[in-house]
Amino acid sequence: MNKVIFKLRRWDPDNKTYKTAEYEVPVRKGMTVLDGLIWIKENVDRTVSYRASCRMGLCGSCGMVINGKPMLACETQILHLESQTITVEPLYNYEPVRDLVADFHQFFEKQRTVKPYLIRDDLEEQINPTREYIQSPEEWNLYIQFAMCITCGLCYAACPTTSTDPRYLGPQALMNLYRFFADSRDQADHLRLEIADQADGVWGCHLATGCSEVCPKGVDPALAIQLLRKEILKRSLKLYRGKKISELAPPLPPKNKSPYRAFGEAPEFTVEEAQEKAGEFNILKDDRVR
Amino acid sequence: MADGRLRLTIYFTGGLIAILLLIHLSLFSFWFVEGGYYTNMEWENVSTRMGSILWDAFYIILLSAILIHSYSGIKGIAYEYITSDGGRKAIDLLLTAIWIIAFIYGVIPIVSG
Fold first, then answer.
1. Residue of chain A nearest B80, judged by CA positions
2. Residue A198: its chain B contacts at CB < 8 A?
3. For A201-217, how does the pLDDT look when each residue is reduced to its tens digit (9 = 90+)?
4. Taking the model in full, what pTM does it have?
5. Chain B positions in Cβ-Cβ contact with residue A240 (cut-off 8 Å)
6. Is the ipTM of this structure higher than 0.90?
7. Alpha-carbon distance A72 to nearest alpha carbon in chain B (angstroms)
8. Which member of A60, A128, A178, A289 lies 3.0 to 4.6 Å from A150 by CB, making a disulfide possible if both were Cys?
9. How many domains is chain B built from?
């Protein structure tokens, strides 16, 4: 059985320093870096901390810098790295919490600022849905690539602007903003472009495209940022024609009037109750469709 | 759309500078342009241009385009390094002051000629 050296760059929160620890790990075919870390924790050093969950590249929890490149530990096979020494570090551009665990607080704060949810003025329909919104395959294609994001945060770790400008919204947030901007069901395009059109928004991007390079899901945040820039410039030049907003599908036959309530006892809210509920989560507070 | 307009200004003034500089260089540096470098630099020709309102306007437009372009560009670079609101306001004020001084400094020889 082959053996490789795992060099872990571990953050010590008590002394506020990094220290490097080396572990010899036996490797078999198909073993991932995450498997290696689990082996270390189970057999050598129980104090090693890392974040992981699904082990199949879906949850986006195990983002780490492996041999200098941000990757998902669960998707990276040790033998594919073709190296006898594997260096594992916590993600760049994040505050470390402990060992290989990075603090995602800022990441999700920035994501929250772009309002990553559909905003429409037919609040009544959203609260007590009766029908579905019509969306053509062409309209779906405009944003579906960007809906594949698993919020693993690798793009932030690869972004040179994020490393120098802490106020920069970053590739994931801007890509997410475009995902909802391009969605034909969304009506808040003016509000979204206002958020993007800032020195720390789309204009902060230097198009290094590191974000697109490292994305494990093949999402292209750099493309989203360029498309947002294009939209902003088009509107500045008054070349914009207006977005087609999805409308509700025709009513169903009376037998299945509400497709949602047909599956069970969905609670029915009044608009006031729903607004009160949304207020608890700070949603809809500033979301006025303009 | 404030930053979008700033970007458009950078693109527009960049294009304008390229065109106006080409005209300027073709007069002063390119020997193959009609009249040639030496003829265009003769005092008589220079003084004729300095006395023309059209040439004055040409150079004021070129000067303004360069100053606006550099103002926007330097502002963009400075904003990446200084991220506090106060610091950014200070940059805006400083650059505006430099812009005004540089514009006056550049316009005086153009119009006084």
1. A165
2. 3
3. 999 999 999 999 999 99
4. 0.83
5. none
6. no
7. 29
8. A60
9. 1
